[in-house]
Amino acid sequence: MNEIEFLGVAKRFPTRRNPNPANAVSNLSLAIRSGEVVSIIGPSGCGKSTLLNMGSGLYLPSEGEVRVGGKKVTGPVRQVAFMLQKDLLMPWRTIRQNVELGMEIDGVDRARRRQTADALLAKCHLSGFGDHYPYQLSGGMRQRAALARTLAVDPQVLLLDEPFSALDAQTKMVLQQDLAKTLYEQKKTALFITHDLIEAIALSDRVLVMSERPGTIIEEIVVDLPLRDNPLERRKLPAIGPLQGRLMELLKVGKQEALH
Ligand SMILES: Nc1ncnc2c1ncn2[C@@H]1O[C@H](COP(=O)(O)OP(=O)(O)OP(=O)(O)O)[C@@H](O)[C@H]1O
């Protein structure tokens, strides 16, 4: 079953001064099956975040439609959760209270909220930090807490917009490992934006390449490699090199046209 679908989607941002602007995203179709992890890479400004915003229902497409679980998206979708580069933790709430936020909004009772939050904090290697405030944690730990908060509402689809790009290389690899294991074990569907080509290959079943604005998908690379639940080991496979080379070619890395 397709968990999330974009059908002939276009997006533009009209203003009063410019009611007919050019498309930011154009003629984009994409279907992600249940349990699949798909990465999107593309030049800056090609519309990747716009695409995720349409997936969550925060933006509605100007043309075409988005479906989640087979249903047309007409506004924010409960089964879809977002995780961004900024952790967006509320500084006045403890880590546990941050993780509980979505469940609180959903009316989950206090005892169950606490149980779920503590189990997720343990899973994200944050046991013992539930009563700390965000400022008391490192950047990597805050991103772990943000991941726990994203998972707490048990979403069907995770939309991840460069969630690790602000972290140092080693912290990033450890967090990728935790995320990959969780996605695999819980059979979550995920759409992942990154500028890091190896990250895309290490974490995904497919990597989609977008063109420059107006963004559309120009290539699909199937990552036909084992170990999707273990990116630390997948990174070591010799087949990673040629896949990265292919993505570099498609993105024209090092070519004059790619320099803005
Ligand atoms: N709310 C908005 N109003 C007007 N224009 C917007 C809005 N959101 C995005 N855009 C425009 O749409 C285009 C695509 O932006 P978007 O942020 O989706 O690109 P991106 O591929 O995620 O970029 P980056 O890789 O730099 O994060 C840009 O030209 C941007 O200015």
Report the principal-axis shape: globular
Q: Work out the strand percent.
A: 15-25%
The largest β sheet comes out as:
6 strands, mixed
CATH superfamily of the domain at 2-79 and 157-163 and 188-258: P-loop containing nucleotide triphosphate hydrolases
CA(first)-CA(last) distance: 40 Å
- For the residues shown, what is the average pLDDT? 92
Order of helices and strands: EEEHEEEHHHEHEHEEHH
CATH class of the domain at 2-79 and 157-163 and 188-258 reads Alpha Beta
Roughly how many Å is the radius of gyration? 19 Å
Specify the CATH architecture of the domain at 2-79 and 157-163 and 188-258. 3-Layer(aba) Sandwich
Uncertain runs: none
Percent of residues in helices comes to 25-40%
User: How many strand elements?
Assistant: 10
Alpha-beta classification: alpha/beta
Which helices and strands appear, and what pairs or packs with what?
Elements: E1 2-11, E2 25-33, E3 37-41, H1 48-56, E4 63-68, E5 71-72, E6 80-84, H2 95-105, H3 110-123, H4 139-152, E7 157-161, H5 169-185, E8 189-193, H6 197-203, E9 206-210, E10 217-222, H7 231-234, H8 240-250
Parallel strand pairs: 3-8, 3-9, 6-7, 7-8
Antiparallel strand pairs: 1-2, 1-4, 4-5, 9-10
Helix pairs in contact: 2-3, 2-4, 3-4, 4-5, 6-8
The structure holds adenosine-5'-triphosphate (ATP).
